[in-house]
Please model this.
Amino acid sequence: MSQPTISDLANEDRLFPPPPAFQAAALASDNSLYREADADHEAFWARQARELITWSSDFHTTLEWELPDARWFVGGTLNVSENCLDRHVAAGKGTKVAFHWEGEPGDTRTITYADLLDEVSRFANVLKDLGVEKGDRVAIYMPMIPELPVALLACTRIGAAHSVIFGGFSPDSIVDRVNDGECKLVITADGGFRRGAPSPLKPNVDEALASCPSVTGVVVVRRTDTEVTMVEGRDHWYHELVGSASPECPPEPMDSEDLLFLLYTSGTTAKPKGIMHTTGGYLTQVAFTHKYVFDLKPETDVYWCSADVGWITGHSYIVYGPLANGATSVLYEGTPDTPGKDRLWDIVERYGVTQLYTAPTAIRMFMKWGAEEPEKHDLSSLRLLGTVGEPINPEAWIWYHTHIGGGRCPIVDTWWQTETGGHMITPLPGVTALKPGSATFPLPGIGVELVDDHGQPIERGGGYLTLTLPWPSMLRGIWGDPQRYFDTYWSTYPGRYFAGDGAKIDDDGYLWLLGRVDDVMNVSGHRISTTEVESALVDHPAVAEAAVVGASDDLTGQAIVGYVIVVNTAEPSDELVEEIRQHVAHKIGPTARPKRVIIVPDLPKTRSGKIMRRLLRDVAEGRDLGDTTTLADPTVVDAIRSSAAEGPGSGR
Ligand code: WT7
Model:
């Protein structure tokens, strides 16, 4: 018999049905959305588009699909900033809070929908005065301050596409992205606050722009009041221009398929890809998912997504989804440990946050810091929790459920990608019975199938995650490279979008994400996912965080090497290492027992919190490190190397 495509090792049978009170009040509390979408997926999305979005002119065709090119809501016109602002103000909600903004030093601003409309309109006029026209691209490199969503919305108001570059990126990354998109203007700030100190941004822009011929102007927001150089004729202060601009700026009606933004995928290996998202389909899906996945009650909820606007999560679930739905959100500038490790819980308590959306890496960090941090605060306002970015291991899920959600909040584990634009696989919190660690089922209107090595659909066990239907917020291409778009996403399994992730389906039909297929290890012919081994490692009480890789091995092809961070109270020793190895064998089977477990002080991560397993493989195989430019903290690799050479588990 042939080996399964990816082994299915872990087993989880805890089940959390929607709490009855939550279900009774939920926007979706039964299977009707699924049934409607199953009957006619285009008609389902057309209804959402017409109900959730205000169109300047209605579309005549829901979908034109010629793989790999989709056109959604063809013939429709709309303006995104009008949908996010004007229509709410016109409906009498001008005084409703759009953002409770909190700066890291503790300064705050309350921004209503009327305030936001005024500021966006002024800044849109500024952009026009600086020569930005419909169809141009504008780069945005900013901290998490209110002017960041203002900048995005001002671009959409005049029909310019934005390209947000995460504020933690280097001048080189700015150069690559600005040049690839031929951006005309850069919007930035003097700096932002991180870990209690100003962190400069404008000097990085200055350095980058020496190599960016397309840029004719720079707008600079004053945030940290640090000294910056202003280039005469090129650089302008935001406050000076906005202060004297007119607050009247009619929104430009855009075609449903006009480019809304470019966002470059982090690109841990090759040249970053400029993912293209367009207008009508994107806004429809982010509004739909933000409403139903977070069970949004805009009149009473205070929603908080703690991601950075520099990632797709921030685009879709800080800016566009919440504002299209008229939500009240929290926007926070800084880090979770400044001034104390209870900063997030302090914010939840003070604003009465009802939904919190964060990443599994953050949750494991909170676990490491201890339950006493959230226990300092009243978190009883929370009624729903969400996660995104990587698989959540059951232990972290249970901790989040218990210590943050007080045992009463459903958790929506949302699987999606920069490329998908919006949620794809996730529970609906009033409908789905949850299993800790499973993203559960595809949303209504989304088609998912797992396939084997031959591209044949499988109904149980592990395989490759593919999407079988076009969806409204799907990427429309890679900027400037249609061939790469086809090759990357549509060529591996004909007729299907291949997401690059492995997943498995259990006996109840639940989907479990297994990480990137490039990371799947091959141990004596068994294809084992990093996710399942990592999850078994962190299940040991002494392990706070874990990353595993397959390192070349003469005997078994690849051998599993686990890097673990232990909790503060654990004493690193060879005995502990042995115990942890056995724990994995006991939990998911002897084939998955790591050959080595190395206790390390930290793990190499990107700025968005993804573990860079490639670097750990380099260490495990004794190679020089590959590209480390996207590493959040370059010093961690040396610490890992010395742990591997002489710490417990080194076999020294
Ligand atoms: C990749 C996409 C989606 C916004 C943030 C990341 C992984 C994402 C989950 C989840 C398991 C997840 C996948 C995916 N991923 N969410 N809930 N469970 N894995 O966006 O940088 O484009 O990364 O993140 O591997 O392909 P991105």
User: Anything to note?
Assistant: The domain at 112-252 is CATH 3.40.50.980 (Rossmann fold).
